Known about the structure:
Chain A is α/β, with parallel strands linked by helices and 509 residues long. Helices cover 32% and strands 26% of the residues of chain A. At the A-B interface, helix 10 and helix 11 of A face helix 1, helix 9, helix 10 and helix 15 of B.
Amino acid sequence: MELIEMKHITKIYPGTVALDGVDFSLKQGEILSLLGENGAGKTTLMKVLYGMTQPNSGEICYKGEPLRLRSPIDAINKGICMVHQHFMLVPAFSVTDNIVVGAEPHKGIFLDKAKAKREVQELIQQFHFNIDPDILVERLSVGEQQRVEILKALYRKADVIILDEPTAVLTPTEVEELFVILRQLRDSGKSIIIITHKLKETMELADRIVVLRDGRLVADDVRPAEVTTEQLSSLMVGRQVDLQIRRPAKNIGEVCLKVENLTVMDHGQAKVKNVSLEVHAGEILGVAGIEGNGQTQLLEALTGLCQPKSMALTLNGEPLSGACDVFIHHGVGHVPEDRLAMGLVKEMSIKDNLILGYHRQDRFCGKGGMMKQAAIDGYAEKLKEEFLIKTPSVNAPVSSLSGGNQQKVIIARVFSQSPKALIVAHPTRGVDIGAIEYIHQQLIDIRDSGAAILLVSADLDEVRTLSDRIVVLYEGQIVSESMPGELSEVELGLLMTGSKPAGKGETHA
Amino acid sequence: MKEKTMNIKRHNAKQAILTSVLAMVVSLVLGAILLAICGYSPIESYIAIFGSSLGTVKGFALSLSQATPLLFTGMAFAIAYRVRMINTGAEGQLYVGAMAAALVGAYVTGLPSVVHVPLCLLAAALAGGLVAGLVAFLKNRFGANEIILTLMLNEILILFTSYLANGPLKAEGSGVGQTNRIQESAQLFRLIPQTQLTIALLVGIALAVILQLVLNRTAFGYEIQITGYNLLAARTAGINAKRTYLLTFAISGAVAGLGGAAMSLGVNYRFVEGFSASYGFGGISVAALAAYSPVGVILSSFLIGVLKAGAITVNRTTDIPVEFVSVIQVLVIIFVAAPTLIRSLIALPKKLAGRGKQAEVKKEGANS
Lengths: 509, 368
């Protein structure tokens, strides 16, 4: 039976139609994957279902009754819960406190702690969640935190659980564990919607796939068994894409970036321990690892953002140290981890962002410190064309761009300075398939033109596809170095969690 | 979509102006209600206020001279805010600036006016700039909070200049705390004789234009904006944020100090204890009303100046208290600081219309 029916949902934001007459239905006891690129409307559709936004037209039926949602509270009361991509937990509270908060059992005005604990304990046992109800959330891994979020939904008697990009932050093992949990929930009669753009996971998990593109429904009854990932991706993008083709480096040169004895302390803890690595000109060195294993500190040390406890860094044989301006000036390009927090100033124009960090160069800035507006305009126009940044004007604020185009602004800014070395972090995080393809192409092109690239990415597929050599970072140390194809995805995944696959993965010194 | 993105910058500017104008209008309306509650006729009061401050040359000159110190302190707050520092210390910087200008004006002799006046201004700017620079230094070095530091420093500086004016530097034979009269060569040129309107106004306007150009057209201004909007992005781009903080805050203090000089050299002809009618804090509302644009401050300080001048004049003939203007100023801050409040006021008619529409849709839905 249809649990939820959304009919002809249309949502118009000023100047853009986010949803154009979309029909959507959900059956009881199914896992439905809502697939689409960024901006396809999948999040908007779910926001409508969760009461976070009101559609301009269309109606929702829930268990056969028309449903009007003014806010998420209405949705939660009806048993529709959402697990957001960014968890909404209080780190200093226990698991139990986090689960019951907002719906606490109480005796008079007092919180009934015993009852809360009992109820949470029962819930954990019922669904085999394997989590300690008394532990503080700050001590949990990301995967466990996600389970707390799911428990929160279950505690509120959710019948429908919407998960927004649930695997984006998980390790391969955690993904498997999540899938087990989700299947279990489905078998107990819950309905689950996952919002995703990852095809492989969709194929593995979903009972049914719904594809949105440009605010329209493209397909609403795809069975994973009946399609290939290629067919799915062309449904999603509207054309053929292949991200898995490797293009090995042709001309690897001398050592360009050489790092020795890198140790970074953070709050009295060594986050990077005595790491040494070399990146050759014309080579991409991929750093695989679960987030929080020292990647951030490694990136900060190699771009001048933090001063490491010890490091001997040479660029083409010349020692290099100092703050960011020194690194930038000497030709170390940086594509930062978090594009909006570190790479861009969202209130300022695309034009201004295209020269950020290079704005003191003579071609942009005259002797008296006056900016050369005409030169900057021309430069920005040129980069806009060259790097296919989709915008009507370079004077528009960078926040008006899609995630992919924002990333293109950073890529354009850094790559057009012909850097000797590049420190690239999560270059395609939260970016749609078309832009991923483009950014990967750019990375390979600049590699082949002789740049030494250090690539840190949480996306193991990306590391495996792009890298000419892969190291695994675990607890601040390099635990493995391998050539692409030498280790399987599973083997790399194991190394990332600190265990060693049988017979392989010894450190190549 | 295209049109939307293309005009966003202009759209934002429009939005800011709209917010400011509405804030002013709503404040005046609330002020009118307040006047009515206190037993004055709002319409007559406003006619009297605006008539006297805009209707006569003298009144207009009074408006402009009332606006002058606010122009400086408003710019001071605005420029610091662009790097997201809050300069609540304009009051103290105003006092040291006034003292420095008064001392150089009184004790340096034998200079022609064209040298003496700039020298006094320079002294004032230096004094204000150093005091503010110290605050920025402490923030950079020890992570001190500039709001608390400047507020505390205000007390120290106001009392210290008071001590000087009552103690070692007290004018001979004076009954109140004030320094010696400045030399004639240090007095600011009066734009209209017999008024307090001096060339300081023009200096302020020129400064506003220069500051705006610095912000929009120079690499330093670019760095101020980047640092203000996104500190981490600024650091990642190799911008020395501490240096930007220090310089911007010192400039802010210098501008406030110049405001003090305008009072010492143009109005009182000496440093007078307690001369400021809270100009330093008035600058905050002026800057907020101008959406922190230096050039915008020219307009917003004029507006407040008009109200003040009107209230002063009206106060002579009727018993409408001058403090009434402070009420308006505070209301303006509240509305500008809570833009959503104003925006929801703007959106109210639309929302009501929308609700009607939704009800219709619901009806249709029920029918089908």
